[in-house]
Amino acid sequence: MRRILIGLIATMLSVSAFSAVQTTNKGTITKLFAYDDYGAVAGRDGADITVWMETGISNCSDGVWVSPVASGYKMIGSFLLTAYTTKQQVSFQVYTDKVWKGSSKSKLCQVDAIRFE
Description:
- The protein is of the alpha+beta class.
- It has 2 helices and 6 strands; from the N terminus they run H-E-E-E-E-H-E-E.
- Helices cover 27% and strands 27% of the residues.
- A 6-stranded mixed β-sheet has the order 1-5-6-4-3-2.
- It starts with a helix and ends with a strand.
């Protein structure tokens, strides 16, 4: 009985962890902001990067954001700059439950991955 209960709890936790991840529509980045201090973390390079585009997701309809605590922060930042300057269409895998706190008016979800397809 104990094993069944632990198995059910583990299953529910894994399902809820993945339910907050969605993929945005494919589109062009309209604005790209890199902050010097907002979202900065001691011992890490950089601060928050915000990306403005139509995502097709209501929780983050205005775009996405990248935190300097992300393990791929520098690589994703360079991909974003490339996508923005070349007007390349991209989509993002985002955490819809991690909304950027830098603006009370904007809805931006945290990036998990960037996709060039």
